[in-house]
Amino acid sequence: MNVQVLSDQALLNHYLSGDRSAISKLIERHSRRVRDYINMMVKDRDVADDIFQETFIKAVRVIDDGRYTDNGKFLSWVLRIAHNQVIDHFRAQKQDKEVTEAESGYDMFGTLRLAEGTVEDAMVSEQIENDVRALVELLPGEQREVVMMRYFSGLSFKDIAEQTNVSINTALGRMRYALINLRRMIKEKNLVLS
């Protein structure tokens, strides 16, 4: 079966030409990544749902107003809107809280077990995961943010740079320093992560 998948730009063109269902398809295509990112940042399902809706309402308004210019980065653009909405939420709440990796419920390295392990394997794995999450929480905010975006949202460094409004080199540098700091903390705490 040859199913043609329309590009984001093609769906936008269909929408702008009057096909109202095209925007629904576009939102559905990217909803999981956007929702996961927002959930990871706010850790409150109800708040995340509100921010998710506001993100796409704002995106559709910008598109309807003719202010969106496609450069092949629709997902990055929507994630940037979501990022700004999250920041606005925290500003409104007058909180400077960042979501910890432990709170996010994500596996830092996205590992997939191919066979069932023993109870001991599970306990060791859980302890390693808890140790890594605790270490990530100790990173400076900018480094922690890059680690979370890279490992939990699966964003490229280009997307991370766009969302955090820095150059790719800065995003790469923050990740480099985060890894250096993690290695240093592992050594200082004599942790065995294997």
Name a few traits of the molecule.
69% helix; Arc Repressor Mutant, subunit A; single chain; 194 residues; mainly alpha; Rna Polymerase Sigma Factor, Chain: A
Tell me what the structure shows:
There is one protein chain. The protein is mostly helical. The chain has 2 domains: 1-97, Rna Polymerase Sigma Factor, Chain: A; 101-194, Arc Repressor Mutant, subunit A (Orthogonal Bundle). The chain contains 9 helices and no strands. The radius of gyration is 19 Å and the shape is elongated. The relative contact order is 0.10.
What class do helices, strands and sheet pairing give? mainly alpha
Q: What is the number of helical segments per DSSP (H or I, 4+ residues)? A: 9
Secondary-structure element order, N to C: HHHHHHHHH
How much helix is in the residues?
55-70%
Mean pLDDT: 79
Major sheet attributes: none
* Extended strand count: 0
Looking at the structure, the CATH topology of the largest domain is Rna Polymerase Sigma Factor, Chain: A
Distance from first to last alpha carbon: 44 Å
CATH superfamily of the largest domain: RNA polymerase sigma factor, region 2, helix turn helix motif
Query: What ranges have pLDDT less than 50 throughout 5 or more consecutive residues?
Result: 110-115
Overall number of domains: 2
Shape designation: elongated
**Rg from Cα:** 19 Å
Write the layout of secondary structure elements.
Layout: H1 8-16, H2 21-42, H3 45-64, H4 74-93, H5 101-104, H6 119-137, H7 141-151, H8 157-164, H9 168-188
